[in-house]
């Protein structure tokens, strides 16, 4: 298991913020606009994203408060102190299964998009192997190694996103967003059914707070990180609807990719930006996958008291097999919804109960 007591292995606030944002903004970053519009059939889905972001912030703050009562332990460890070892280990294994599913979804998503846009005809096992083994190498370094990588990836992702949104404004039609709330709030609330997966990963402080140099700044990191994620999702959804209209977004599998393919710039080195976006998106999904992989391996190693490194090798083929369960894109989308709802049950319902029980039993700080 990665050593977390040494000062050199502690996460800085910047690294924790980068991990948080990269964990939240996974494969859903290119499909959220279509998924929400498909349910609401209005351009007001950006309100759904903002509302979901606010709810996620409140839920995540509860998780942070819970973790701060046990500043030297991860969720897998302190949950056993709160509700006892048998029940705590059982619940911990459910969380591990959730992260295996999340990692499998990210792997499946990156394979589908890469095979369709970049490497048509390349065997899926070859694409998967590259991602799996690279992630394995990074996870062997523990959370600090992951933090150093995402600290480099994070600003690049943000800069490319700003560039794409800036260029997409040229094709933007404000009339596609009007009238606002023409059908009231019911469609907005209905579209929120698709947002849990978009914010899955925000619970990561239940596992990384014990690795931070300054755990007291966790709430600030959550606010900044969620603010960035909500801003990204909202702006990308607004621009996709503004460019393609509500009907146009519904007919596209990956609206944000189609937006980039619609932009042509003569005064930049790359006249078409999709290759740049694909590269950045792969880095983003790789970061999300690696964090899910790490959380699953950490859980098994701490619950069953086995070697962290051996657990990583054990999970490698398991994640690959689970990623092949969905047969097509529709099955993959349904798989994502199951993961999103599971995340809501595990990290929106259970942490408040655990926090109350910890106060009642007077466990933790």
UniProtKB/TrEMBL annotation:
It holds the Pfam family Spore_permease. The chain crosses the membrane at residues 12-33, 45-66, 87-105, 117-140, 152-171, 221-246, 276-296, 308-326, 338-360. It is a multi-pass membrane protein. The keyword Repeat does not apply. InterPro entries: Spore_GerAB. Keywords: Germination, Membrane, Transmembrane, Transmembrane helix, Transport. This is Spore germination protein. It comes from the Bacteria. It is found in: Membrane. It comes from Paenibacillus zeirhizosphaerae. Its main location: membrane. Signal peptide: none annotated. Belongs to the amino acid-polyamine-organocation (APC) superfamily. Spore germination protein (SGP) (TC 2.A.3.9) family.
